[in-house]
Amino acid sequence: MPLILSAARVLSCLDGRYASPVPARVVREIPSDGPVADVSAPDIACNKGGEAGTPLVANVTAGSQVTFQWEYWPADHLGPVSTYMTSCNGDCTSFDASNARWFKLDAEGYDNGQFASAKLIADNFSWNSTVPAALADGQYLMRHEIIALHSTGDPQYYPSCT
């Protein structure tokens, strides 16, 4: 069974001001809700500070569906949604995602008059992706991303790794 740093309801960030100690989680911590500005920087892989791993992995069966649950998403930040995976070639808890070789699981843009981010909002801020059925055993990292297109000529990238 593949081990994937993912589980249902993973993108909500917990803050130490509200829970002590902060519970361990499978999502890599994101320090703010702002976009990644430099697409050539390592931050584009898993967001600012996302190169640091997490101490947990979650078991996910190949061929199963994974749900990414966002805490919120602004309705005016319309754009595509994509999900990727990479093998960690061993232990994902300390894997540096800036050197990952990602493969795409899904991507939706604009279809039937609606951006994928609007679909995510309508689905209670959640997104479902299917893990490949033929995925080899091992540890994998998932990258989920929304690209906001509300600033003409200046897309905003919001990646998160789990």
TrEMBL record:
Key word Lipoprotein present: no
Listed PANTHER family: ENDO-BETA-1,4-GLUCANASE D, PUTATIVE (AFU_ORTHOLOGUE AFUA_1G12560)-RELATED
Reaction equations catalysed: [(1->4)-beta-D-glucosyl]n+m + reduced acceptor + O2 = 4-dehydro-beta-D-glucosyl-[(1->4)-beta-D-glucosyl]n-1 + [(1->4)-beta-D-glucosyl]m + acceptor + H2O
EC number per UniProt: 1.14.99.56
Protein name according to UniProt: lytic cellulose monooxygenase (C4-dehydrogenating)
GO CC, any one term: extracellular region
Annotated Auxiliary Activity family 9 catalytic domain residues: 21-162
InterPro entries, alphabetized: AA9 (IPR049892), AA9_LPMO (IPR005103)
The entry's keywords: Carbohydrate metabolism, Cellulose degradation, Copper, Disulfide bond, Metal-binding, Monooxygenase, Oxidoreductase, Polysaccharide degradation, Secreted, Signal
The keyword Repeat belongs to this UniProt entry's keyword annotation: no
Annotated Gene3D superfamilies: 2.70.50.70
Family designation: Belongs to the polysaccharide monooxygenase AA9 family.
GO biological process: cellulose catabolic process
Species for this entry: Hericium alpestre
